Amino acid sequence: MSSVSALSLVCFLGILAALPADAREWRPWCGPPQGMDGDASPSLGWHFYCDRDEGDAEADETRAPKQPPAQPESPMERIRERRRALEEARAKAVLDPNPGNVAAYLRLQQEVLQRAASFSDAFRRTVWGSPDLDYMLRRPVGALAKRLWSDERRAERTAVLARLGERYGLIYLGDANCPACRVFGPLLRAFVLRYKLDVLAVSMTGEPLEGWPEAVPDQGRAARLGLTTRVVPAVFLYDTRTSRALPVSFGVVAEDQLAERIFALTSREVGSDY
Question: Contact 86/114 with Cβ under 8 angstroms?
Fold first, then answer.
């Protein structure tokens, strides 16, 4: 090798060493280097550094795995996170009750209370403007509205009970030795006279009942009607259309309670009053 060639090689190696590491890397988008695979075709040479083609860069980006976009937290996750933060702050304040920890807990608590107050206020405003969502229109609690509702309910109940005898009768089970029966018997007598109802009074012991001298001895009557209870006094509605007995009350019950129960059982669908 001539001295000129040797000097040129040394200068080139010095320049190559001075280049940054990424510049000394082989750039595959520049094409195959000459002499590395025995190919004698012209090329840029292994020492030539070219700029990367934009199309190759886009292809690499396409091949690179993309990170899925972060999903926003659901409302339930946000609630759970706030609850966890509040509980953690409270625990920290309990274990180390210095002013900073206690103040941090109180601030979080105030934030929670403010959110609850905002929800409560929005709730009532929505109900005020949406009659179909206002339960107070069905069962009012205000004094004036409740009195009007009660008057309407009482009138409707009286009308239903006035027609009750067209389909229903009452069965009364009593015991002459039962103190509650001695109180309830006369009360029931006044009730059925008011609404002109038919009653079958059955004495479980066969003795006359208070207020019901015409009571008949049981002698298996209650069992044949499907009434197996031994709790007295007991009142049942007997449906003449279905031949079924429906329990109304056990024990001493006031007249207005009897009227309300019979009204609900015969004229209201389950759940309509709630």
Answer: no
Instruction: Report pLDDT digits (tens) over 184-202.
Output: 999 999 999 999 999 999 9
Work out the number of other CB atoms within 10 angstroms of the CB of residue 71. 7
Task: Please say whether the beta carbons of 185 and 209 come within 8 A.
Answer: yes
H or E element that contains 181: helix 179-195
Give the tens place of pLDDT for each residue, 5-60. Answer: 554 554 554 554 555 554 445 455 555 554 445 454 455 555 555 555 555 555 55
Distance CA 270, CA 28 (A): 80
**Which residue's structure tokens are 């008949």?**
216
Query: In 3D, which of 83, 89, 113 has the Cα closest to residue 103?
Result: 89
Q: What is the pTM of this model?
A: 0.62
CB neighbours (10 Å) of residue 168? 20
